[in-house]
Amino acid sequence: MTDPRLTPLAASLPATVPFVGPETQERAAGRAFTARIGANENVFGPSPRAIHAMEAASAEVWKYADPENFDLRHAISHHHGVPPENIAIDAGIDTLLGLLVRLTVTAGDKVVTSAGAYPTFNFHVAGFGGELVTVPYADDHEDPAALITKAVEVGPKLIYIANPDNPMGTWHSAEVIQRMIDAVPAGSLLVLDEAYIEFAPEGTAPALDVHDTRVIRLRTFSKAYGMAGARVAYAIGARDLIAAFDRVRNHFGMNRTAQIGAVAAIQDQGWIDHVRSRVGVARDKIAEIAAANGLVCLPSATNFVAIDCGQDGAFARRVLDALVAAGIFVRMPSVAPLNRCIRVSAGTPSDLDAFELELPKALAKARAG
Ligand SMILES: *Cc1c(COP(=O)(O)O)cnc(C)c1O
């Protein structure tokens, strides 16, 4: 029986978990994974300067964080050359997505995204009573033209796209994304999730234009900056939209240590160059392992690679299950035809050695049924 104290909306929601964590799987298996290469975490970690700053700050964790995120907003402002008034900070893109949906979506409002795109966004839309309208991927890419066509048709509050994309790792050029921004219908806001932008080639991100009210950009310290557990991300957008976050955000929700670490991290771009080069080596290694097993990788502008297992979703699932049973944590897309792939994060050399050892066995098991 449903608790009568829940709102009708809460009572109607499924008990969905957007992602089952690797810790949950480890507890169920009774042992730790050998290689943790399933959640696109950056195994190369944060800047040593960020680690030092967080260590130094840890004894002062008795203090609440600065609710205005003043130092971090100014550091981000300096890095991107946009005014601090155009930057909102919170505990991860996931939190910012929730706040944005709360600010814009009420019961019955429509939201447009791609079938198989980032599920945490969908989770928030459901949680505020919005209605998801999806379009399919085209050739393993999110489809900007189809998203806009659907938006013109249904008049959504929000249109979501990740560039580069998760789970496929594919991307569009800045020109394609700018054309999409220019075509956003009146009354809609484009949510441009750029969680992986630091890994993408030059010319992937359109210029930041803080006067453009049609788009909000989301960036995170979780991926290239290697600080997923710290929970820090930011939105860049028009001043009034950014100011609206103050109406609903948890003003004391930031972790003070993480806030201080993020300032040091964004000031150490040399570390990001180092991470990029290690991720490049890892992506090449994953492609080499796939090729040695007769499989093809999708091109990637992220710190993960989608490997096409060459058959259907059921086959890829068997490959994935065999890898997980062998101590290799990987994930896969949820929707056909994307789910013919498994998604492997850029690991350390030893992570990828373990993957190289287990992949042929997993494929043999999957082929045996
Ligand atoms: C990893 C990821 C996020 C989550 O970012 P956090 O800042 O850790 O909440 C958001 N969007 C996409 C597309 C991601 O892959």
UniProtKB/TrEMBL annotation:
Keywords (A to Z) from UniProt: Aminotransferase, Pyridoxal phosphate, Transferase
Q: Which domain of life is it from?
A: Bacteria
Q: Does the keyword Transferase apply?
A: yes
Report the EC code(s) recorded for this entry: 2.6.1.9
Is Transferase tagged as a keyword?
Answer: yes
| PROSITE patterns assigned | AA_TRANSFER_CLASS_2
The biological pathway it contributes to is: Amino-acid biosynthesis
**One GO MF term attached to the UniProt entry:** pyridoxal phosphate binding
Instruction: Enumerate the SUPFAM superfamilies for this protein.
Output: PLP-dependent transferases
- Please name the InterPro entries in this protein's record: Aminotrans_II_pyridoxalP_BS, Aminotransferase_I/II_large, HistidinolP_aminotransfase, PyrdxlP-dep_Trfase, PyrdxlP-dep_Trfase_major, PyrdxlP-dep_Trfase_small
Residue ranges annotated for the Aminotransferase class I/classII large domain, each copy included: 38-353
Cofactor(s) of this protein: pyridoxal 5'-phosphate
Under PANTHER family, the record lists:
HISTIDINOL-PHOSPHATE AMINOTRANSFERASE 2, INDUCIBLE LYSINE DECARBOXYLASE
Q: Which family does it belong to?
A: Belongs to the class-II pyridoxal-phosphate-dependent aminotransferase family. Histidinol-phosphate aminotransferase subfamily.
Q: From the Swiss-Prot or TrEMBL record, give the protein name.
A: Histidinol-phosphate aminotransferase
Identify the species of origin.
Ketogulonicigenium robustum
